[in-house]
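Blinded run. Sample ID left blank on purpose so nobody reads anything into the name before looking at the predicted structure. Input follows.
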Amino acid sequence: MERGGGTVTQRVAFVSGGGSGLGKATVLTLIDEGWSVAFTYHHSEESAKSIATLAAETGGEVMPIRANLLLRDEALHAASSALHHFGQVDAFVHNFGPFVFERRRLAEYSDDDFEEMLTGNLRSFWWMYRVLIPNMRERGFGRIVTLGSDGAGLAAGWGRRAPYAAAKAGLASLTRSIAREEREFGVTANMVCPGDVRGKNKELARNEAESVSKKTPVGGDVARVVSFYCQPASHQLNGTVTEVNGGADIRFLDEHA
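Blinded prediction complete.
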């Protein structure tokens, strides 16, 4: 992995919400590609243990961190722990974020529900970013990848899931702002927006991929895009929002031509 004028062998990623679903697929993909990975989980302890077991079998190094990222102190501690353990973080993948399962009109959401969407999808990222960015600046290299949702980059909105859509649109704006602010330090920031990915939190782990239509993006598809954005070779991509939706936009145009 090239960084500045030299070359190092260790690559370290920090993945929030990496214990299941898309986060787990991303962690496994990065491990396969030789990364050392710290990842957070909350309730998915057995899944986190299985990731550690798989990593040990392949010689990879992982650091599972149990944390409730809705709480500021736990989010800060998680990022700090990863940085302290490895001494560096080359890539920060923000996958964590609660999803709205019960569809409601905006006026029907409680203050707590609305706050959870903003804190989980937006504030938690900001808390951990502030811990990690000084190390990236100092070393002249960093990759930040956030996970969005359909239309987040265009602030397209989402009827009856408005707080979630607003949080993801805000995250897209933060991602692009970081891309502008940090490029002079060799840090890029990009967003990946999964399309119709099935399962809890609209996520799908690798081992569920075979049951899904070939036109539907699965966890591994999204994880490979995320992984590329983490690589040094992605340095020309900065401030982008990539939709991984199985070509849904093109199919729509064809069907309505």
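Unblinding after everyone has recorded impressions. Helices lie at 21-32, 45-58, 72-86, 111-139, 162-182, 219-230, 248-255.
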